[in-house]
Amino acid sequence: MTKNLKVKIWRGGKEGGFATFDVPRQENQTVLDVVTYVQRNLDPLLAYRFACRVGMCGSCAMTVNGVARWTCRTNVSKVEKDGRLEIAPLSHLPIIKDLVTDMREFFDKGARAKGQFKGKQNRQDEFARVDPKSKERIAANAGIECIGCGVCYASCDVVGWRPEYLGPAALNRAWTLVNDVRDIQQTERLKVVAGDAGCNSCHSLGSCSERCPKQIEPTAGIAGLKMLVAMAALRGEI
Fold it and tell me: pLDDT tens, 7-28?
């Protein structure tokens, strides 16, 4: 193990560049530990996001040696190359400063995909009962643990090619909701995800599923949406 890490960190905005820092190597050191050391000891103006430090919030996601990752759960030993690290902001998102990106478009796409649950019952009604063993509930459960970290979005080549594409996180959320039997806006949701920016633009490359820290498979959910969209079109519903 090398005594020091040679760390390149993106500084500035879109037209910024990498600055290089020497960081002491530590046992069980995470990439977030490295960024924190730089900010606290070498460059106090370095901007980055983090919150929980234990893989619960997803706010510390960055690009590490070319791959989008949660930095709090990424051990340096797994990603360093000859004692070197390159840390950049997430791809496909506007850079605010340094390692901080503007996530508004990412979350706005979730809203455009009708990622909000809408039921027909009110607080006076009894709780809706859903069979946990039903195929719909099982399908929804497979994608419901998404915390909106943006790793899949930053890993998606189609987002890079077609900025209007809704992206894997938004479509994964749509998939969970079309499998929620309590939701009442299924047809409207399928119409949205059937558009040019929707599920049929996915090339099924699988980068989103490969890199999701929660082991969700958006590629599978998007394939499911394609099937539902086709069936709805055949029925003349969309």
Answer: 999 999 999 999 999 999 999 9
Model pTM above 0.85: yes
CATH number at residue 147: 1.10.1060.10
Distances in Å between the alpha carbon of 152 and those of 20, 102, 132, 180, 197? Answer: 27, 16, 27, 23, 16
The residue behind tokens 């979730």 is: 110
| Residue 17 belongs to domain spanning | 4-101
pLDDT (tens digit per residue) in 135-170: 999 999 999 999 999 999 999 999 999 999 999 999
d(CA 91, CA 150): 9
- In the block, tokens 């340094």 appear at 98
Q: Which CA distances in Å does 106 have to 34, 80, 89?
A: 27, 29, 14
Q: Which two tokens stand for residue 120?
A: 């027909």
Measured between alpha carbons, how far is 14 from 177 in angstroms, rounded to an integer?
35
Residues 196 and 219 in one domain: yes
SS3 26: coil
Where among 33, 68, 101 does a domain terminate?
101
